[in-house]
C-alpha cells in the first residue's frame, strides 16, 4: 500500500512530517557545527546537545495535557509556525555573526520544548486521519518518510549547506517548518479532531493519563518492555563507533556507509510493519520482533567483520522501527480519543527514561572492560526482554483493563 491509499489527509500529514524531519536533519548537525565554531570546549558543546534532550523529560507530560485540551490540528500548525520563527531568528543571528553560547543553548532548548507539544498532538491526531486498521501501515509510512528525509537527504546535505553559508541550513529549516504548518492547516477539521476542553487542573489531568496507562495491562507491559529495550539500545548506540572501528575493523572512511546500514534497515522495517501486523496481529508481531532483534544483536555481538556486523545492525534497526510503529499503533487504537495526548506522552516518557542510564552504563563499562562486553550485555538484555514478552504478553487480552500491573 502507498501513502495515497490512506487518503488525502494522511498525504498532507505525511508531507508535513517529512518536511519537518528534513529540516530537523539539516538543523541538528548544523547546530553542532555551529557550536564548534563558537567554542572548542567539549563540555559546552555537550551542553548544547543536552539542552535539546532535556525538554522531553521536563515537559513531555505537560505537552500531553495541552494536546488533549486544544485542537490538535491547530496546535501542530501554531507550534510549527513558532518553530519557524525561532529558527529564522537563529539564521539571522548566524548571518550577522552574532552567535554566542547562550543563544545556542536557548535555541536548542526552546525548539525541543516546542517539539514535545507537537509530538503529543501529532500522536493523538493520527487516529482521526486514518481508519483504526490502517494505523500500523500509516505509522510505518511516517517512519519511512522520516528515514528518507532525515537519513538520506537532510543529514548529508547539512554539512554541504553549512560549508556554503553557516546560516543556510537554519534558513531552510525555517522554511520546512512553515511549509509543515500550512500543510497541517489544510487538513480537514473533522469532528474527531476536535477535543473538548477539560476543566481539571494540569496535574490532575497528567495523573489521569498516567493512571489510564497503568491500568491497561497490555499497554503498560509494552511500555515497560520498551523502556527495558531502550536501556540496551542506548547502550549499544553510545559505543557503536568505537565497536565498529576497534572490533569490526571498519575503516574510518567507511564508517558512514556502515552506519547507513541502520538507516536502510529502519526503512525496510517501516515499510514492512503494516504487513507484519496484518498477518500476525499487533501483539504477536511485537513478540516476534523482539525475538528477531535478540538474534540480530547476538550476531552483532559475535561478529568480527564489517559485513556480518552491518547486516546484523540493519536487521536490528528494522526491528526497532517495526516495534516503534506497532507500539504506537496499538496505543492509538486502545486509548480513548480525549486521553490520547496524555497517555501517548506518558508512554514516551516511561519508554525514554532508561536511555540516559543505558548510555552512561555503556560508557563506564566500555572504559573499564572494552566495548565487546557492552555488546554482549545488550544482547543479554534483549534476550531477557524477549523471554519476558513471550511470557507476559501470551495471555494478555488487548482490550482488558486491570489494576494488577505486570505479571
From TrEMBL:
Statement: the UniProt record of this protein carries the keyword Kinase: no
Location of this chain's protein in the cell: Cell membrane
Pfam families: MFS_1 (PF07690)
Record flagged with keyword Membrane: yes
Membrane topology label: Multi-pass membrane protein
Transmembrane segments annotated in the record for this chain: 44-65, 77-97, 103-130, 142-164, 170-190, 219-245, 257-278, 285-303, 309-328, 349-369
Keywords from the named record: Cell membrane, Membrane, Transmembrane, Transmembrane helix
SUPFAM superfamilies noted in UniProt: MFS general substrate transporter (SSF103473)
Database matches in InterPro entries: MFS, MFS_trans_sf
PANTHER family per the UniProt record, alphabetical: INTEGRAL MEMBRANE EFFLUX PROTEIN-RELATED, MAJOR FACILITATOR SUPERFAMILY ASSOCIATED DOMAIN-CONTAINING PROTEIN
Protein name: MFS transporter
Species the sequence originates in: Micromonospora parva
Amino acid at each position: 500500500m502507498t501513502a495515497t491509499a490512506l487518503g488525502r489527509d494522511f498525504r498532507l500529514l505525511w508531507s508535513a512530517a517529512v518536511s519537518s524531519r528534513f529540516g530537523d536533519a539539516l538543523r541538528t548537525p548544523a547546530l553542532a557545527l555551529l557550536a564548534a565554531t563558537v567554542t572548542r570546549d567539549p563540555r559546552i558543546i555537550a551542553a548544547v546537545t543536552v539542552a535539546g534532550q532535556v525538554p522531553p523529560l521536563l515537559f513531555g507530560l505537560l505537552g500531553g495535557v495541552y494536546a488533549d485540551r486544544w485542537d490538535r490540528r491547530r496546535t501542530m500548525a501554531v507550534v510549527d509556525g513558532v518553530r519557524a520563527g525561532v529558527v529564522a531568528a537563529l539564521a539571522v543571528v548566524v548571518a550577522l555573526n552574532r552567535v554566542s553560547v547562550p543563544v545556542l543553548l536557548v535555541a536548542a532548548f526552546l525548539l525541543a520544548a516546542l517539539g514535545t507539544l507537537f509530538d503529543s498532538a501529532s500522536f493523538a491526531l493520527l487516529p482521526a486521519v486514518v481508519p483504526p486498521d490502517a494505523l500500523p501501515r500509516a505509522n510505518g509510512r511516517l517512519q519511512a518518510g522520516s528515514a528518507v528525509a532525515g537519513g538520506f537527504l537532510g543529514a548529508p546535505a547539512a554539512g554541504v549547506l553549512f560549508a556554503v553559508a553557516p546560516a543556510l541550513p537554519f534558513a531552510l529549516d525555517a522554511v520546512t517548518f512553515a511549509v509543515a504548518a500550512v500543510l497541517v492547516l489544510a487538513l480537514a477539521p473533522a469532528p474527531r479532531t476536535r477535543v473538548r476542553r477539560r476543566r481539571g487542573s494540569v496535574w490532575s489531568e497528567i495523573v489521569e493519563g498516567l493512571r489510564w496507562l497503568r491500568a491497561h495491562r497490555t499497554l503498560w507491559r509494552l511500555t515497560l518492555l520498551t523502556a527495558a529495550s531502550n536501556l540496551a539500545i542506548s547502550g549499544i548506540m553510545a559505543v557503536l563507533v568505537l565497536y565498529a572501528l576497534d572490533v569490526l575493523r571498519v575503516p574510518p572512511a567507511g564508517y558512514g556507509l556502515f552506519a547507513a546500514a541502520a538507516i536502510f534497515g529502519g526503512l525496510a522495517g517501516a515499510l514492512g510493519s503494516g504487513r507484519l501486523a496484518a498477518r500476525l496481529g499487533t501483539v504477536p508481531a511485537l513478540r516476534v520482533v523482539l525475538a528477531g532483534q535478540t538474534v540480530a544483536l547476538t550476531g552483532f555481538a559475535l561478529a568480527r567483520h564489517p559485513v556480518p556486523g552491518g547486516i546484523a545492525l540493519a536487521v536490528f534497526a528494522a526491528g526497532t522501527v517495526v516495534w516503534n510503529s506497532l507500539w504506537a499503533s496499538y496505543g492509538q487504537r486502545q486509548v480513548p480519543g480525549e486521553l490520547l495526548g496524555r497517555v501517548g506522552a506518558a508512554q514516551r516518557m516511561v519508554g525514554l527514561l532508561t536511555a540516559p542510564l543505558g548510555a552512561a552504563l555503556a560508557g563506564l563499562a566500555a572504559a573499564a572492560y572494552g566495548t565487546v562486553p557492552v555488546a554482549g550485555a545488550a544482547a543479554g538484555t534483549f534476550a531477557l526482554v524477549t523471554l519476558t514478552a513471550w511470557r507476559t504478553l501470551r495471555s494478555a487480552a488487548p482490550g482488558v483493563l486491570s489494576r494488577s500491573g505486570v505479571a
